[in-house]
């Protein structure tokens, strides 16, 4: 298992370097000149030139990249061009909100997907199976921005059951923290729940047709025992793969959901940085998001070692 961990960590290094190069290059292609934005539209050529020199924008691209990357490795992602605040500090302040939203979305997706998939797989062809199939199609097709607006208007504003906007840190009030995240978490996690339900149902059906499960049933084991102790672990591998792939989608979806529900997370920070053309902030947010996705994929790879002993032996 340690060999598997070391191999996966080693593979992350060149990938992270490649991601940083791509992010640095693409950000520089964004239209507009940040020096003009900072100095002001009415600034003179001398003032704009002084701003570019102060920001190091006239240096060769490789010099700019090396200066940024060497600092990023030490945890310093630079300084915002507009607020003069450290990018790492701003991201650390906004990260708990986004992490909380993503975690709640994953938990809600699993709470919906696992019972629905088990019920559909154990009653193939029945009305529960057909209802679950229809529900997964609707869940995948429904845009999260439309669902978010619908929930914020109907559940929060008209019915007053849950808060419509805002975020409360977990340390301040756990109950209020959860109340503020239920609607955005459901909005973000519904599509993931639909995809996980579809995948888990298919995997369980394949496992139910295996000979060892027929033998377990023939020995008189109860249906719940067969599903929990024998079927779920063998059916979980493709589901874990889908869940790992959905992490990047969930993190990307926070940009829209945070705007709808007024959550001060990385999504709002990224939008503000793009509108201001704050290059260090954009680079910092994208790189941190890429690292989070790679860590999630690493955890998925490690879970394979738990679910499949053959992987640990490689």
TrEMBL record:
<feature type="domain" description="ABC transmembrane type-1">
    <location>
        <begin position="95"/>
        <end position="304"/>
    </location>
</feature>
<dbReference type="Pfam" id="PF00528">
    <property type="entry name" value="BPD_transp_1"/>
</dbReference>
<protein>
    <submittedName>
        <fullName>ABC transporter permease</fullName>
    </submittedName>
</protein>
<feature type="transmembrane region" description="Helical">
    <location>
        <begin position="281"/>
        <end position="300"/>
    </location>
</feature>
<feature type="transmembrane region" description="Helical">
    <location>
        <begin position="177"/>
        <end position="196"/>
    </location>
</feature>
<dbReference type="InterPro" id="IPR045621">
    <property type="entry name" value="BPD_transp_1_N"/>
</dbReference>
<feature type="transmembrane region" description="Helical">
    <location>
        <begin position="134"/>
        <end position="157"/>
    </location>
</feature>
<keyword id="KW-0812">Transmembrane</keyword>
<keyword id="KW-1133">Transmembrane helix</keyword>
<keyword id="KW-0813">Transport</keyword>
<dbReference type="Pfam" id="PF19300">
    <property type="entry name" value="BPD_transp_1_N"/>
</dbReference>
<dbReference type="InterPro" id="IPR000515">
    <property type="entry name" value="MetI-like"/>
</dbReference>
<feature type="transmembrane region" description="Helical">
    <location>
        <begin position="9"/>
        <end position="30"/>
    </location>
</feature>
<dbReference type="InterPro" id="IPR035906">
    <property type="entry name" value="MetI-like_sf"/>
</dbReference>
<keyword id="KW-0472">Membrane</keyword>
<keyword id="KW-1003">Cell membrane</keyword>
<feature type="transmembrane region" description="Helical">
    <location>
        <begin position="101"/>
        <end position="122"/>
    </location>
</feature>
<feature type="transmembrane region" description="Helical">
    <location>
        <begin position="239"/>
        <end position="261"/>
    </location>
</feature>
<comment type="similarity">
    <text>Belongs to the binding-protein-dependent transport system permease family.</text>
</comment>
């Amino acid at each position: 298992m340690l060999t598997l961990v070391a191999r996966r960590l080693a593979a992350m290094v060149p990938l992270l370097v490649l991601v940083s190069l791509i992010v640095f290059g693409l950000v520089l292609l964004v239209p507009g000149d940040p020096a003009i934005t900072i100095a002001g539209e009415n600034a003179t050529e001398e003032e704009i030139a002084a701003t570019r020199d102060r920001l190091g924008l006239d240096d060769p691209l490789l010099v700019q990249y090396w200066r940024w990357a060497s600092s990023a490795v030490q945890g310093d992602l630079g300084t915002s061009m507009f607020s003069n605040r450290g990018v790492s500090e701003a991201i650390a302040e906004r990260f708990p909100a986004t992490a909380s939203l993503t975690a709640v979305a994953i938990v809600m997706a699993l709470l919906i997907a696992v019972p629905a998939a088990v019920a559909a797989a154990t009653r193939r062809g029945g009305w529960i199976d057909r209802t679950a199939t229809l529900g997964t199609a609707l869940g995948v097709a429904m845009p999260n921005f439309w669902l978010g607006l619908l929930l914020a208007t109907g559940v929060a504003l008209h019915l007053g059951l849950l808060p419509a906007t805002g975020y409360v840190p977990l340390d301040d009030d756990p109950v209020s923290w959860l109340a503020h995240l239920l609607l955005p978490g459901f909005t973000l996690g519904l599509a993931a729940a639909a995809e996980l339900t579809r995948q888990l149902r298919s995997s369980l059906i394949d496992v139910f047709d295996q000979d060892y499960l027929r033998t377990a049933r023939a020995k008189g084991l109860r249906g719940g025992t067969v599903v929990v102790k024998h079927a779920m672990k063998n059916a979980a591998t493709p589901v874990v793969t889908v869940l790992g792939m959905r992490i990047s989608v969930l993190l990307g979806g926070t940009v829209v959901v945070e705007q709808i529900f007024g959550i001060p997370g990385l999504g709002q920070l990224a939008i503000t940085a793009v509108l201001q053309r704050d290059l260090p902030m954009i680079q910092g947010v994208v790189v941190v998001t890429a690292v989070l996705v790679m860590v999630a994929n690493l955890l998925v790879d490690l879970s394979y070692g738990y679910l499949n002993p053959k992987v640990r032996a490689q």
